[in-house]
Structures are given as C-alpha cells and as structure tokens.
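ugh ok fine here u go
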Amino acid sequence: MTLFTDTIFLTNEIEGFRECRETRSTSTNTMTVLYCEAGYIDVYYHNKMLRINAGELFVRLPDFCYELGPYEMSPDFRFYQVTLDAKIFDKVMFDHMRVEPHWYAKQEYIKDHPTFALSEASAAAFHTYFELIARQMREEQTDYRRQIMMMLARVATMEMLNYLDKLAVITPQEIGRMSVNHSDYTFREFTRLLQQYPHEREVQWYAKRLGITPKYLSEICKERSGKSAGEWIADITVAELKHYLRHTTMPIREIANLMDFPNASFFCQYTKKHTGLTPNKFRKQKQE
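structure:
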C-alpha cells in the first residue's frame, strides 16, 4: 500500500519506499518515521551507516544539516513508513515547546539517537495510526477529510513524541550543552525562512529579515553546518530545480517562472553553473 498527498507519504511497499526516497524522504523539509517489522535496513545517516532492526522505530526529524543517504535492506525486510511535511512537525513542536522548556535539547538527543525499540503495545498503536491515516487518504479528499487526516498526523506525531520523551533521559549537563544559544536560534530561524521563502536567493535578504549582517549570517551557518548561507540557498534552489527537471515535463520557461527567476536564460545559466549541465541536458541525462 502506497498513498500520498502533498503533505503526507505513507507506504509499506518496497517500491513505495524507493519512490519516497527518490522524491521526498531525503529532503530536509520532511520528517520520516519508519517501523521495521521484520529483517533490517542499513541507512546512511549523519555521516555513518545506521542499522534499523526488527522491532525498532527510526525517527528522522526535519534536519537542514543532514539528508538521508544510500541504503541496503535484507531480503525479508518489512516495514511501515510515514513521511510528513516539516510544517506538520513544526506546528507540533511549537505547541510542545510552550509546555516543555527542554524540548530543543530532547530534539537534539533524538537526532543523535534516532532508533528506539518499541514495545508490543507501542507497535500496535503505530499500526493503528497508520491504518487510520491510510483510511482517510483513500477517501475522496473533501475539506473535512483533509482536516481529519492532518489532525490524525498531528496526534500520531504527538503520541510518538510522548513515547520518545520517556526514553530520552537527558542529564542536566546534556541539557546545558544542547540548550539554544544565539547562533542556534539564528540558524534555525534562517532555515525556517528558507522553507517559507525558497525563491529569495540573496543572502542579504535573509540577513535583513534576521537583523544581522550577511557576513555574520554566513559565519553562523558555516559554524553550525559547515556550509555558508549562500551554499544553503543554492542547495535549496538546486534541489527544487532538479525535482522539476526530473519529475515533470514542464517547459523550461514555465519552471523558471514558477521559481521566480527573471527569465529562462538566467535559469539555464544558474542550472549549468550548479549542475554542470543545461536544463535540457540534465533532463535528457535523467531519462537515459
């Protein structure tokens, strides 16, 4: 079963898993939850191979520093996966932070410890939410259906966070080490703005919104992620244009207009600069 909307991708099929990896789950703008029911899967995550065994839940929070890399699975691998748009998680996190002062530290803990063994009861609850969301996705998508589906996704996310919250036991020393400082806050706000305004391609524009200089913004990004603000902007832009070139048949002029480039010629120059190929050659290479 593979079902998807513009905000949710749900699958328990290998082909659906591959499709999701191709189009969504490597994206820094998504949250992925995968329960391994049988076998195992090795995933390149945070610069190392991570094994997810049967009975374990893998949680990848939206992370602008790390995308999911290559993977290998055992022949008997069985799983359930839900990939959500980061906006759903951001809304849950915003609500949660008002009652949990150390949530940011726990979020960092989950990024460092992304696999959790589920009890039978918790695994059953995961299956229940999976089926409930799937049921709503199969129905004709009225406004009520969409709202119900989004609420179920939020409730399932909160249920998962509640479970992980009990497992993520953090010492006062770790809380202090992972507390939000000015650089962390600025970097998070920058990445949030990137999500909201991905077609603003000038570092100066983001720096002005954050009330700091472009140089200081790039220094913070470099310190926090190893990439400058300009590199972050380019990565977001290139990922989007690659998606349109690989997965749509839209004319180049239409893609350029959709991405707010001044004209198709400028879009072609930008694509060649960052991919080494013109848009048409990039699209042709993908087809081959």
